[in-house]
């Protein structure tokens, strides 16, 4: 599966190293901007390999950078944040949202659009287009 993902023209992989070389994480991400820039930023601070997303800020930043849906990001924040920097529901505080949005805009002004979430279908439709 990893080989297939890395051979896909729409996907690239970046290595995130833990401090001291004690671990590595391969970040698979859409090759196009802004996802490539966002993943490079995550790899730069050791996301997943050295920095585990414990705070709502990092959960939202990493989730957005990897292209997860808002519903999935909010579920992860609610399920694992114990109310820290959230308004008691599945939503981070406005300050956290603003900080994440600012960071992402600083890395790339291009709006995110995943190549496999094109109009007219999901991943199956994207696979069909690639086979043609």
Description of the molecule:
The chain is mainly alpha-helical and 132 residues long. It has one domain. Helix 3 packs antiparallel against helix 4 and helix 3 runs parallel beside helix 5. The longest helix has 14 residues.
Task: Offer a concise description of the structure.
The protein is mainly alpha-helical. Helix content is 45%, strand content 11%. The relative contact order is 0.14.
Structural key phrases:
132 residues; mainly alpha; two-stranded antiparallel ribbon; 11% strand
Layout: helices, strands, pairs:
Elements: H1 2-7, E1 11-17, E2 24-30, H2 35-44, H3 56-65, H4 70-80, H5 94-107, H6 123-131
Antiparallel strand pairs: 1-2
From the N-terminal CA to the C-terminal CA, the straight-line distance is 21 Å
Rg (CA only): 16 Å
The whole-number mean of residue pLDDT values reads 79
Helical region count?
A: 6
> Reading side by side through the largest sheet, how are the strands ordered?
1-2
Order of helices and strands: HEEHHHHH
Structural class: mainly alpha
Shape designation:
globular
Percent of residues in beta strands: 5-15%
Low-pLDDT runs of 5+ residues are 119-132
Helix percentage: 40-55%
Count of distinct strands:
2
The number of domains: 1
* Biggest sheet descriptor: 2 strands, antiparallel
Region (Disordered): 110-132
